Amino acid sequence: MTTLSQLKTFITVAEQGGFTAASRRLGLTQPAVSRTIATLEKELGLPLFVRRREGLVLTEAGSVALAHAREAVHHLTLMHTEVAGLAGDITGTLYLASIPTATATLVAPQLQTFAQRHPAVSIRLLEGSEEEVRDWLDQGAAEAGVVRLPIKGLEVAALGDQEMVAVVPASSRLASKDTITYPELAEEPFVRGHGGCADVFMPIARQAGVAFDVAFDAREIAAALEIVRAGLGVSILPRAGLPDVPGVAVRALIPKTVRHLGIAISASASAAARAFLEQIAVQSGGVGLIEPMK
Fold first, then answer.
1. Where does the chain show beta strands of DSSP type E?
2. In the predicted model, what is the mean pLDDT of residues 86-97?
3. Which listed residue, of 55, 161, 202, 274, carries a Cα 20 to 30 Å from 258's Cα?
């Protein structure tokens, strides 16, 4: 019979994209992880992964099995946490997804407080774009996640705001200004970052009648900063957690542009995830949870 350990190993291999990375995450040897997957494949009667140039990829059977594995692990974890909750304790694992720019400044302090209040809860953190966070919440890979407000269909609490700023080469004529407007940025080649930032400032640009000359698309903030440093373009990025890069100037953006962030939980969230959400709601002003948008 398939064991909980097998399911957790299978999920980790799928999320990490390979045996080596999964073994590091699980604290096991690579041969042990490989044997576990081989045993599970033998029990199910079909291969779960196929090896491609980019790493291990789920087969059709693997995709079906992964959905059930996540559901099974979730319900077993929920059983333990709810039974423990009858004794007044919260146990289990908090699976939290965050966007990189929010982890250090907004999420980490909350996790520190949560860990002190609930020492029996383990914390697992995933980082990705806003779209990836929402997918993880929908697929059950995470039960709590950082999202941009407002958002429909999820129970959320306000986490905090991130101011967006203009990022230009230090040698640029714009670097001599204290503030930079959208039309001024539109005069230069633009570096568009992914991860949800563009969804914040692009509507404001359209309202101002501005169309950016998008010359580069950068998935990571570090890549966007390097392109700007090289003098190839300008960008708009969150001020929070923005590293000090020589050759790059950061200036206030006009009009002021803010990304509102919150913590959302899935409908089947565990007691640990709900406790984390309630903590965020209280610390954001004690106004309680934001009602899910219909």
1. 49-52, 55-58, 92-98, 121-127, 144-148, 155-169, 179-181, 189-193, 213-218, 234-238, 248-265
2. 78
3. 274
